[in-house]
Structure formats: structure tokens, C-alpha cells
Amino acid sequence: MDMTRSPDPSGAESTQQLELAIILPTLNERGNLAPLVERIEDALGSGGWEVLIVDDNSADGTADEARRIALTDGRVRVIQRIGRRGLASAAIEGFCATAAPFCAVMDADHQHDPALLPLMLNALKAGEGDIAVASRFAEGASMEGWGRPDREKLSGAANALARKLTGVELTDPMSGYFMLPSETARALVPKLSGIGFKILLDLLASAERPMKVREFPLNFSARREGESKLDRAIAFDFLAGLYDKTFGKLIPTRFALFGTVGAMGVIVHMAVLSLVLFWFDKAFTVGQAVAVLSAMSFNFWLNNWLTYRDQRLKGTAAVLKGWVGFCLTCAVGGFANVAVATLLESRGLYWVIAALAGIVVGSVWNYALSSRFVWGR
Ligand code: GDD
Ligand code: MN
User: Fold this and answer.
1) How many Å separate Cα 215 from the centre of its chain?
2) Distance between CA atoms of 87 and 200, rounded to whole angstroms?
3) Among 23, 125, 245, 254, which is most buried by a count of CB atoms within 10 Å?
4) Which residues is 131 bridged to in the sheet?
5) Rounded distance, CA 270 to CA 59, Å?
6) Considering only CA atoms, which of 24, 224, 228 is closest in space to residue 110?
7) Looking at per-residue confidence, does 205 or 194 come out higher?
8) Pocket test for ligand 1, best of 26, 56, 107, 218 (most atoms within 8 A of CB)
């Protein structure tokens, strides 16, 4: 067994104080971990840092692999979360779990070059900025395996929006690689939404005074192993961030999304209901039941794409399981929906009003349970 990389168990090296925590959010990154810890050691030397692997119960056994590494390397620690998901919340978990005065967040898939870590740390220690950000768009940066011709345009638009949102000038507000004093990060945590993966943007937008950003050009590499968990709907993240910072306190972003999707579901519901009632000439109860099922499937699909895009169920099996789960948790809500609507309609209430009343009863139930049991894992 290779013990050469671990700090001396006699404590000879423990004189080097802990300075930096490198937070690695992971979802199915098993094979990437050991080589990454080696690269971090190459960049930072043998001591003064720790790696915090925050794994959301990956199916490929990432947490076990992390524990295997940690067994012989005291600088590596593992936080395994069960029943929770999300890159942003994993980073927050890391901020709160370290004693190191500085913390960095980086991808575990080798897209982010650890060689920047000492440069970022030195810059922060020298007071060159409040936060160090590795940028894919800064002067001197490069991107391997992600050659989009519209890159400049896209980054220009993103830049302008981010400036509005955060009051800071930066070329890559969606970067997943940055470093800041741990205390600053923790102080901002209560203001963060924790949704999605726009954690850097969220941090910058939550600061009371605009942060001074020190950028580092990043040579963005191709992923070493496995596949990406995020999509590139950057515009959506900006809109969500914008909403979060303006109306988010009033109505939480996630709830607003769920409500919007629900409202669209009402349109689907009404369309299907009127179709069954007037085209196929079936009874109201039948129409209402068919409409509930259609709207439910539509809502599941759209919520999976929008509301829970940071926890999106992917692959036929997972989506099917999620759909069944969504239908089951909604079954009681759906039953109440049909019952309430039928009752009201039989009492002479106009069919549209009766159906709407059913929908309100059903949706409250849906939100409460589905966020916990379908996308919460
Ligand atoms: N714990 C946890 N939970 N980790 C996650 C989750 C999650 O739900 N989703 C993704 N991760 C981990 C991945 O395992 C990886 O280490 C890191 O977060 C980034 O995920 P990737 O799937 O590699 O993201 P990407 O390469 O497509 O996206 C990159 O670019 C984005 C901007 O375009 C990342 O750098 C993002 O941080 C960045 O915002
Ligand atoms: Mn990646």
C-alpha cells in the first residue's frame, strides 16, 4: 500500500497548519478521485490542505472509494449525503464542514486544473481580492473539447447579465472553480438559495458590498471519466438567479416554478376535460379523471425539466420510476381532486369552477410530497 502520500502519522508534518479546504462535490466520479488527490498534492505540496468529498450517495460507489482513499490519507474527508441532491448545496455543506480559513470549490472530473490552487490561495492571502475565480473566458484561458463558435457572444451576454445581478465585472460568472475565505462563504450561506449550480453567482449576488474578484485564466480540460450531470441552459440559471434575488424572499424560486408548471397543467387539464366532455360526450367524472392523469404526466415531465433541473431524473428507468412515484404521491391528491370537483359539480357549481377547486386541493398535496419523495431521493 502506498503510504508515502499520507501525512506522517508520528505528527512530524502536522506542524503545517491547515490553510485550504478543497471541496469536491461528486456524483458518480469514482474513478476520478484518486488521480485528482494526487494532482492536488502535486500542486500544493504535502500539507496544509484537506480535500472534502461531498457525495450525494452516488450509485457507482464514489463515497466508498473516497473512504478507501481517506483510510490511508488523513487529508481526505468524506461527507456522504443520503436523500439530498445538488451541486450548490454540496458546496455549502463543505463551507460549513471545514476549519480551514480558505476554501475552494472545484469539479472532481479533472476539468479544473489544480495547478491554479496555489496561485489563487496566494492571491487571496496577499489581499488581491475577496474571491478568486478560475475563468474559462479570461484572457489566456482555453477550452478543450468544448469549442462553441458562439462562445464569445454567449459569454458577453452572460457577462452583462451577471454585472446587473452582482455589480461586479467578471468574465465567467458560471464558473464552478473558485476560492474564498471560509468565513465569508459561511456568512453568506443564510442568503443563498442553494438551488441549482449557480453557486458562484449566488455568492456574488448575496454579498452586501460588491466583492472584489480576482480572475485566473483557466485551461478548461475535457472530463477525464464519466459524464456531465449538468446541462448548459445557462440562460435559465440567470433568470432563476434574477428571480431569486428580486422576488425570491416573497415566493421561493422552486415554489414559483412549481406553480408556473402547475398553471400550465391547468391549461392541459381544461383542454383534455373539455375534449372528453364535448367531443367524446363522456360523463364529468370520466373527463375529470382523464384530465387529472394527463395534467399529472405533463406536470411531471415539465417539473423534471425545469423545477428540478438540478436534480433531474435521467435515463428511462429513473424517469419511469419517478413518473410512477409522482403519480403515486399525487394519487391521493388526484382522488381528492376528482372527489371535490365531482361533489361541487353535482351540487350545481359551474363545471369550470368545480374543476379548478379540485385542482387547488390536489396541487397543494402534490408540491408537499413530490419535492420530498420524487426528486428528493
Ligand atoms: N454532490 C453533488 N451533487 N455533486 C454533483 C451534483 C449533485 O447533485 N451534480 C454534479 N455534481 C458534481 C460532479 O460530480 C462534478 O464533480 C461537479 O459537480 C460538476 O459537475 P459536472 O457534471 O462535471 O458539470 P459540468 O462540467 O457539466 O459543468 C461545469 O460547467 C458549469 C458551467 O457551464 C461545472 O464546472 C459547473 O460548476 C459550471 O457551473
Ligand atoms: Mn465537469
Assistant:
1) 23
2) 11
3) 23
4) 213
5) 40
6) 224
7) 205
8) 107
First-to-final CA distance of the chain: 36
Pocket of ligand 1 (CB under 6 A): 25-27, 29, 54-56, 85-87, 90, 107-109, 111, 174, 176, 197, 228-230, 232
Chain centre distance of CA 351: 41
Q: What DSSP string runs through 32-66?
A: HHHHHHHHHHHHH-SSSEEEEEEE---TT-HHHHH
Q: Give the residue, by CA position, lying nearest to ligand 1 atom 29.
A: 176
- State phi, psi for 114 to the nearest 5 degrees: -65, -15
Best probe residue, ligand 1, of 27, 30, 82 (max atoms within 8 Å of C-beta)? 27
Q: Pairing mode, if any, of strands 219-220 and 142-143?
A: parallel
- Ligand 1 atom, smallest distance to 81 CA: 1
How many angstroms is it from 258 CA to the middle of ligand 1? 23
| CA 78 vs CA 45, 89, 368: distances in Å | 21, 15, 31
Write the Ramachandran bin of 242: left for phi over 0, alpha for psi from -120 to 50, otherwise beta. alpha
State whether the Cα torsion 72-73-74-78 is positive or negative: negative
> pLDDT tens for residues 165-178?
778 888 888 889 99
Q: What is residue 262's DSSP assignment? A: H
Question: Residue 227 CA: which ligand is closest?
Answer: 1
Indicate if the pLDDT at residue 363 is higher than 90.
no
**Distance from the CA of 229 to the center of ligand 1, in angstroms?**
6
Length of the chain measured in residues: 377
Give the three cell numbers for residue 354: 368545480
Confirm if 89 and 52 have CB atoms less than 8 A apart: no
Closest residue by Cα to residue 22 from 86, 88, 108: 108
Backbone angles phi, psi at 102, to 5 degrees: -120, 150
Q: In angstroms, what is the span from residue 216 Cα to ligand 2's centroid? A: 18
* Atom number, ligand 1, closest to the C-alpha of residue 311: 8
Whole-number Å distance, alpha carbon 194 to ligand 1 midpoint, is: 14
Cα of 231 vs centre of ligand 1, distance in Å, is 9
Q: pTM of the prediction?
A: 0.74
